[in-house]
Records
---
Amino acid sequence: MRVDFYQLGGLDPARAMAQLAGKAVEVGLRVLVVDGDEEARQAQSRALWELSPEGFFANGIAGGPYDARQPVLLSGKVEPVNDAKVLILADGQWRDPPPAFERVMLLFDEENIAGARAAWRMLGEQDAADRRFWKQDDRGRWVEGP
C-alpha cells in the first residue's frame, strides 16, 4: 500500500483535500475522506463543490441514503461503504486502514507533526508500506522531498 504524507503549508486544509480528492476522482477512483470534526467535514464538502469555476466534485457526508454511490464520501470513520480505494486522513490523525485501500494520504500541519512522524516511523517497520513525503513549493505545487 502506498502512503503519502502531505505537510500542509499555508494552504487551507479543506482546499488541499479537495485538490487531492479531485485528482483521484479524475482518474476514476473513489475516495473516502476521514475527519473527526463535523464542521471540518462540512467545509470539505463545500471545498469539493467549489473547487474550480469549471466544475465541482460530487460528494456526500456519511449517514445519508446514497453513501454507496458517492465518488467522494466524507466521514468520521474509516468505513469505505462507497468502495473507495483512496483514503484521505484529512485531520492529521493516523488510523490503520483496512486492506481494501490502495493508497492512503495523511494531511498534516504543524499541530499534528509529531503524530505524522510517529506514523512515518511505524510504517517504516512494515514491508508492505511504500511511504512518500510531499510539501508545497513556493508556487503552491506539491513536490516530493525530504
---
Amino acid sequence: MMADQVSKRSKKTGLPPGSLVHVGERKVEKTLITVIDYDGDNVFEKEVETVEECFRFRETSTVTWINVDGVHDSEIVEKLGSYFGLHPLILEDIMTTSQRPKMEDLGDAVYIVLNMVEWGSGDPDLVTEQMSLVFGKNFVLSFQERPGDTFDPVRERIRKGKGRIRKMGPDYLAYTLIDAVVDDYFVVLERMGEQIEEIEDELVADPKKATLNEIHAMKREMIFLRKSAWPLREVISRLERAESPLIQKTTGIFFRDVYDHMIQVIDNIETFREMLSGMLDMYLSSVSNRMNEVMKILTIIGTIFIPLTFIAGVYGMNFKFMPELEWRWGYFLLWGMMLAVGISLLVYFKRKKWL
C-alpha cells in the first residue's frame, strides 16, 4: 500500500505547487454533484449537471451544502474551488487522496481532511475513503472519492427538519458530517471486535497458518485505523478550540462531544492492538507447545527402544556359544523381557507425569 502511494504521487514530480493532478484510485466514472440548500422554512435539493448551476447559491442567506462524488476531474474541482475562493494548494490537496487528516483555518473558510471507514463484504474487509470538507459563512463543500456514504441520515434530517440542523449554520452542518464519520469508526471497531473474538476462539481450539495470516491482516488494518484516528482527534480538538468567527461557541460544545467519542475510538483501537499482539504471542506459544508435545512423544518412543535395541543387538550377535540360543523357551523369554522393560519405562514416565 505504501509503495502504491509513493508511485502515484510520483506523477507530480517536477510540477509546480498547486498543480491539479489526481493522485489515487479513480473510484467513479462520472463526477456527481448534488446541492442541498436550506433554511428554517425551506429545503431545495437537486443533482446538478454543471458546476455553474451551483454559483447562484454563493451569496444567498441560506445554508448550501454542495457534495461532489469523484475528485478525478480537475476542471470541476478548479471551477468550484475558484468560485468559492479556495487556494490552489487546497484544491491540490483535495485531488491528492493520500492526505493525512488535518485542519486549516483559511480565514474566510475552514478546510478539513478526514478518512471515512466502513466494513466491506470482501477482501480487504476495511474500506477507506478520503473526504475533504470546506465550510464558510453560508456554505459547506464536501469532496468524496465515490458515491455512497454515511450521510443519508443527515440528509433526511435536513429534508424533514428534525433536530436543530435547519436552525443552525454551516459550522453545525460540518459538525454533523464529522460526527457521522466518527460514528462509522464505532461500527467498524464493533465488527473488528467480533472478528478478533472468532480468531481468538480458533487460536485456542486449533491454530493454523491461516489463523496467523488473519492476525497479521487485522494488525495491518488496525495500524491504518490508528493512523487515521490519531490525526483526526487533533483535527477535532483544533475545531473545538478554534477562534474562527465561522465556528459559533454553541457549536464548539458539539465538537467537544465528538472529541470525547474520538478518544473512545482511540482507546478501543489501542486495546485491540494489544489483544492482537497477545494473540500473536499465543499463536507462537501454541505452535511451540505442539512441537514440544511431538518431540516429547518421539523422545519417549526413542527412550523405550534404546534398551530393546540393546537386547536385540546382543542376541543378534553371531557368537557360537550363547546358552540362551539353545533354550527351548529362550525366544519367549526374550520377548517377555523386552515387554517388561517397555512396560516398566511407560509406568515410570507416567509416574513422572511425562505422559
